[in-house]
Write a structure and sequence with these properties.
Blueprint (H helix, E strand, L loop, with lengths): L10 E2 L5 E2 L5 E5 L6 H13 L4 E3 L17 H13 L3 E5 L3 H7 L5 E4 L7 H7 L5 E5 L6 H12 L6 E5 L17 H8 L4 E3 L1 H5 L5 H10 L4 E5 L17 H14 L4
Parallel strand pairs: 3-4, 3-10, 4-5, 5-6, 6-7, 7-8, 8-9, 9-10
Antiparallel strand pairs: 1-2
The chain binds phosphoenolpyruvate and manganese (II) ion (MN).
């Protein structure tokens, strides 16, 4: 609850970036790490746009077992190099307990995906790790279920936790999910944790991403997690919702009008 830390949890990273402070922290990058060239170019563009974190999945939770499953640890190595070259921090998804240990040297934040929000054994294990985590809301999870999943990590002693609204499944099918912007102020009210918005998975269509990114920040988000690809039409996953680099630049300039941005 917020009464645990009325002023809110602040997470400090090695390069001086603070999540949960006065500034909104931007994280962007491709859905998946696909190759050295792709992640290097992505890192350069993400840094130039003013974001502080590079995102990119190396272990991918794909709806179909026949879709690209990610590059694994090899992908994390090239992502770390690309991030370091451009002064960025790394956020990437962990899918299972056995991946935690091998991932540790290469990453700054463990992303727990929507599909794993109730993988309680994974959450419990992440509670014992001394590395920041970002927990995404499950596709059909209530606020209470998000809070109880967060509790699995917190109760292990890991307080460096961020929550993330990424859209929920409703009767509406025009957008990929329904971005529940209201979850942002609700989670801010009920918890002391920094809250992020992921407008990319929230709407699933790149032309709608900027509106929901702006709405998330207006609603009080401490940061955004966004998909951007150097060549979205060739992306191996989530191309339709990935911003073009120029779109990310333009969006970040608009976000700066709304709130102080890191
Ligand atoms: C992702 O960030 O690429 C991802 C798979 O997100 P989610 O778990 O929200 O679907
Ligand atoms: Mn994705």
């Amino acid at each position: 609850g917020r009464n645990f830390r009325p002023e809110g949890t602040k997470i400090k990273f090695a390069n001086g970036v603070v999540v949960g402070g006065e500034e909104v922290v931007l994280m962007a990058g491709p859905c998946s790490v696909e190759s050295k060239e792709q992640i290097n170019l992505s890192a350069k563009q993400v840094a130039e746009s003013g974001c502080k974190f590079l995102r990119g999945g190396a272990f991918k939770p794909r709806s179909s077992p026949y879709s690209f499953q990610g590059m694994g640890i090899e992908g994390l190595k090239i992502m770390r190099e690309a991030a370091d070259k451009n002064g960025l921090l790394v956020i990437t998804e962990v899918m299972e307990i056995s991946q935690i240990e091998p991932m540790l040297p290469y990453i700054d934040v463990f992303q727990i995906g929507a599909r794993n929000m109730q993988n309680f054994n994974l959450l419990r294990e992440l509670g014992h790790v001394r590395k920041a985590c970002l927990l995404k809301r499950g596709i059909a999870a209530t606020i209470e279920e998000v809070l109880l999943s967060a509790e699995y990590i917190l109760s292990g002693g890991n307080y460096d936790l961020m929550l993330c609204e990424r859209g929920i499944r409703t009767f509406e099918t025009y957008t990929r999910n329904t971005m529940d912007v209201s979850a942002i102020p609700v989670l801010k009210k009920l918890t002391h944790l920094p809250v992020f918005g992921d407008p990319s998975h929230g709407v699933g269509k790149r032309d709608l991403v900027p509106a929901l990114a702006l709405a998330s920040v207006a609603a009080g988000a401490d940061g955004l997690l966004m998909e951007m690809h150097p060549n979205p039409d060739k992306a191996m996953s989530d191309g339709a919702q990935s911003l073009f680099p120029e779109q990310l630049n333009k969006l970040n300039a608009q976000l700066k009008q709304l709130a102080p941005i890191v």
